[in-house]
Amino acid sequence: xxxxxxxxxxxxxxxxxxxxxxxxxxxxxxxxxxxxxxxxxxxxxxxxxxxxxxxxxxxxxxxxxxxxxxxxxxxxxxxxxxxxxxxxxxxxxxxxxxxxxxxxxxxxxxxxxxxxxxxxxxxxxxxxxxxxxxxxxxxxxxxxxxxxxxxxxxxxxxxxxxxxxxxxxxxxxxxxxxxxxxxxxxxxxxxxxxxxxxxxxxxxxxxxxxxxxxxxxxxxxxxxxxxxxxxxxxxxxxxxxxxxxxxxxxxxxxxxxxxxxxxxxxxxxxxxxxxxxxxxxxxxxxxxxxxxxxxxxxxxxxxxxxxxxxxxxxxxxxxxxxxxxxxxxxxxxxxxxxxxxxxxxxxxxxxxxxxxxxxxxxxxxxxxxxxxx
Length: 373
Known about the structure:
By secondary structure, the chain is mostly helical. The chain has 18 helices and no strands. It is 75% helix and 0% strand. Helix 2 (45-52) packs across helix 6 and helix 4 crosses helix 5. The model has no long low-confidence stretch (mean pLDDT 86).
């Protein structure tokens, strides 16, 4: 391939990435408008947009800080100790009830997409995801144990879910270790741990006597954004931002690792250490999303694959595309889960599962080598 051809190919990839970013931003913006417009409190589109762009909030850093970091930290940062000025009812509804759900969808979508892309590079298998590698099932088991057995710890459920996911992956890594790990052993160990933990989750339902506990457990294990507020997002936000930032600067290592172990070692990479650290970043991103929304399936599996088909396998492009496409899928799926179904509101994880399953069925029919990177 000539230098001119290489430059043209690079330009095409860049244009593909720009198209993914632009399309994703349009979907997120449209979904956000729908989410803030509709709800049990009636509001016209003009009223919803006026509340969303209310200058009493946008021009007052005290309100913005109160929403994002919490009131106590806002007062520490600004030194303000009085009463904040009151807001219009429409603004309160949009900024405290409807907008947090959109922000949560963006954070969860970006975290899961980035996490799935890293897991697929670490295992060199495009069917890898937090689900396959045991992270989701570990978090689910921790959630059920807390709800059914240790109900006094319910206030710490997001943290416990994240710790459960991280512990499960450490177990997967320990099982896969035989003087080092390999992509195949990691996937097999993940399937083993995921299967056992999922069976234990199902067994835990028999010990739940309270119907409310069962419904709460189902919401967590299927993934839901119902009732998400700013206070649910704040604790996970720093971890999500940190994991996404680390994944962006790790694109070169992911590209080298995707070439295979022998090639990576010949290029001077400490493969085992790099694989473990990158997997840690992926677990951190998945844990942050689980802490907010529970276990949302298929986003970490579907988005990296879709973006890879559009922008190619260069992880610099792929990670950037995932960062925008993941939120687009989550926001759109949550609009469907909240407003579009005649049966009423359902967990968003059900919608992503319904979308993801048929997509992979189509993929299996279309591509003979699906699963190989």
